[in-house]
Amino acid sequence: MTYHPKSDFMSVMIERGFLADCTDYQGLDEALTKGVVPGYIGFDATAKSLHVGSLIQIMMLRWLQKTGHKPITLMGGGTTKVGDPSFRADERPLLTPDMIDENINGIKQVFAKYVSYDDGPTGALMLNNAEWLDDLNYLDFLRDIGRHFSVNRMLSFESVKSRLDREQSLSFLEFNYMILQAYDFLELNRRYGCLVQFGGSDQWGNIVNGIDLTRRVIDNQIFGLTSPLLTTSDGKKMGKSADGAVWLNADMRSPYEFWQFWRNTTDADVGRFLKLYSELPVDECNRLGALEGQEINDAKIILANEVTTLCHGAEAAATAAATAREVFEKGGVGDDLPTISVTSDDLPVSIVQLIVKSGLAKSGKEAKRLISENGAKLDDAPLTDAGLMIDAGALSSPIKLSAGKKRHALVQLGD
Question: Which CATH fold would you assign to the domain 339-413?
């Protein structure tokens, strides 16, 4: 990337590693130097929370606002009814309108932590594409919008081609998705003067369609900018961990577990993740990322604190760090560990069931393997008996279960 940007936003995108591709570097950079640029990202409401995989896009919107521009968070109340087929092996399950609304309410909580919604020139907008998609007249839409799309070209996009190459069914419903997303960009430009769409690099085809449609229908120039599709240095998809998705909502993934996810970052990813997910200066991110030995662990704690502070607040980050210190350094229990309760009616209960119930293993088979490979501990002592039964006496005070050195849970007697 040899282009030297004039705008603060493009400088941040390039320096911090957010930029995979742009439809017109110079044109977007010029627009960013001339006034407030509204830019959007669309988020389909397929779950009640976004996960860490979406955090790179949310941080892009945060930097857009911090550098003097206007973020638009677009909820896919309409497009979620269709489902994005991009790089999926199968069709998404269809959600009811009530489920979509419930998911949107959960997702909205995240954005307010990263961007400021106010009436100022750079105040963020929260929109829902159901506003213009729900009442579309099918015949008018086909005539006015559908005629601008070439099926030959749509079939050439990688997201569609990969599905067809594997001879996996692509429904007509899903095939419409890219037309609807392109129409979103046209409507956002027409209604709100939106000039740029951001997304992961898997969204390139959808973004380019919107730019092309807007030029054809109202002859406006707009832009697209994509971020790299992130995988960790060991090849795992960003946002997933051994025990499932790393959600951004506290009621779906506790701040302590969220903090722990970042603390467990592999050494090779620390510098890159600090640049993408924290606001520490780039030089400091590079310095911390280059540390080795015990010092790189200190850098991981800084990463965990910075990211958790942005998502859950400084107090939650400090509590998580203190709990981690207590658990790892002093062998204590810690007040903020994931906790499960069992009632006296459940007792006695096998240790294998408790390991599964606490989320430290996905199945009884996995829990037994953990025990046989000496990876499980009960109150910091090696757990060797997979047939152990826990009764009320054993739960007179909470017991601590551990899987490896870094994953822990408490089991207590409930009402």
Answer: 3.10.290
